[in-house]
Design brief:
CATH superfamily of the largest domain: Periplasmic binding protein-like II
Radius of gyration: 22 Å
Number of domains: 3
Helix content: 10-25%
Shape: globular
Largest sheet: 9 strands, mixed
Number of helices: 13
CATH architecture of the largest domain: 3-Layer(aba) Sandwich
């Protein structure tokens, strides 16, 4: 199934429905390599103030780091986000396990502090600390890119987490609180001046069969930086990507897809490894991977994102980036639903029948991430968390024009009661007045049913 230039436009989405993927998969030969990364903590966590234990996805590391650095810098009552990066699906167990799981056995948690530079006043320092060997507690909040019900059946426990996609979970001991919207992006090296976009069929074939799909120029298995797990995905980044592109996760590249299969070790590649391998590829036109939009934004100097044609967009063949163009950071196409690989950050915490987190630190964190005071009666944070979201490439609900109610489900129009689209865009782009936005001080200055919200007519 090699493609000559100009042939891509003749491909149709019907391949999936017509059983195309299994037939291609039978002819595949794939090789995967893995890397191991370790880190030694240099200090104990015991003396850090107001610790909030977070377990979860690597996708939101830039967000947690930026927020953690600001919280640690609060003058009167600083907080410490202790963040252990584990696969999204495995993170949930750290909250719902009973008796509690020993989180000290899962590596040294990261914590962050501000380290401003002349070029970047929001720069942060990333450190690790060691937990007391006797520390046996539940995490306050698990962070996931997908609904728990999207996780492999070997991990997902029906009825353990309350979410809108699982009606049977009304009495679950934990609640899934939805946070800002994330996007996953396909990346190539910034030195790749040839590749600009991916058609839906190309992405589906690459995700299903890897290099043996023969999607030119992505035909070298060493240059395809895909996630792989023989037992099923537990990492939310590929789970969201596969779901949103209508590829069954049973099609991830694995031994049963191919006639002759050579494998080494199977571990999901850390995002930092994927980014490094793509950026440093000696054949940049052939190198590809997919990572979170947050991590991509931190590495735009060496990487570029590929526009995609998603489900429902094949007729017009128009490809979309998460942003309005390759240089923007406005998340315009995420906010209006044109960019399809997106979904809310999931924050899972133990909760009572009133849906309020039972652990005070969990309640603080969840409320902060949803733009509310940390606890009843507490004053709001002395900084606007929308600024942190804009800085790190996630979109608060108030800036969204569409919402989804299920995993990668249909988009529905959305108008927030306190919309912040223009304010979010101003903070994300650095433009004091983004295009199409009208500054205001009162709603009487706005027309056509708009209100003055966050300093703009919305």
């Amino acid at each position: 199934m090699s493609w000559a230039p100009g042939q891509k436009e003749t491909m149709v989405n019907a391949k999936i429905q017509q059983g195309f993927l299994p037939s291609v998969a039978a002819a595949c030969v794939l090789m995967f390599a893995s890397t191991a990364r370790g880190q030694t903590a240099t200090q104990t966590c015991d003396f850090l103030p107001n610790k909030i234990y977070l377990h979860g996805t690597t996708a939101v590391k830039p967000l947690i780091a930026a927020l953690g650095a600001r919280l640690a810098a609060l003058p009167n009552n600083p907080y410490t986000l202790l963040y252990q990066q584990v696969d999204a699906c495995n993170a949930v167990e750290s909250v719902i396990a009973n008796p509690p799981g020993n989180i000290s056995g899962r590596g040294a948690p990261h914590f962050y502090s501000l380290a401003p530079t002349p070029q970047n006043p929001n720069a942060y320092r990333d450190d690790t600390c060691s937990l007391n060997s006797a520390t046996i507690i539940n995490a306050d909040v698990a962070l996931a890119d997908v609904y728990f019900s999207s996780c492999p059946s070997s991990i997902y426990v029906p009825g353990s987490v309350r979410d809108v996609s699982d009606p049977s979970s009304s009495s679950a001991p934990a609640v899934d609180y939805l946070g800002p919207t994330q996007a996953m992006v396909f990346i190539t090296a910034s030195s790749n001046f040839t590749s600009q976009y991916l058609l839906l069929e190309e992405m589906q074939d690459i995700l299903a069969c890897g290099s043996c799909a023969r999607i030119y120029p992505y035909v070298d298995h060493a240059q395809l930086n895909l996630y792989d797990a023989e037992g099923g995905f537990t990492n939310g980044i590929p789970l969201m990507t596969y779901h949103c592109l209508n590829v069954p996760v049973t099609y991830y590249p694995k031994s049963s897809n191919c006639g002759t299969f050579i494998k080494t070790s199977f571990y999901p590649e850390p995002e930092i490894t994927i980014m490094d391998k793509v950026a440093r590829s000696i054949t940049p036109t052939a190198a590809i991977g997919f990572i979170s939009g947050e991590n991509y934004d931190e590495h735009r100097d060496t990487l570029k994102s590929l526009a995609i044609v998603g489900p429902g967009q094949t007729a017009g063949r128009k490809a979309y980036l998460p942003d309005s163009d390759a240089l923007a950071r406005d998340r315009h196409n995420v906010r209006d639903g044109h960019y399809v690989i997106q979904g809310p950050l999931h924050m899972i915490a133990s909760a009572g029948a009133d849906n309020v987190p039972t652990r005070p630190m969990a309640q603080r964190f969840v409320n902060w991430m949803r733009g509310k005071p940390g606890m009843p009666g507490e004053a709001p944070l002395p900084f606007n968390i929308i600024d942190v979201f804009a800085q790190t490439g996630v979109v608060p609900e108030c800036a969204m024009k569409v919402i989804r109610e299920t995993e990668c489900g249909p988009f529905k129009p959305y108008i927030d009661p306190a919309p912040c689209g223009c304010y979010f865009e101003s903070q994300a782009t650095g433009l004091s007045v983004p295009s199409g936005c009208i500054p205001c001080q009162a709603s009487t200055e706005c027309s056509n049913g708009r209100i003055c919200s966050f300093g703009f007519c919305e």
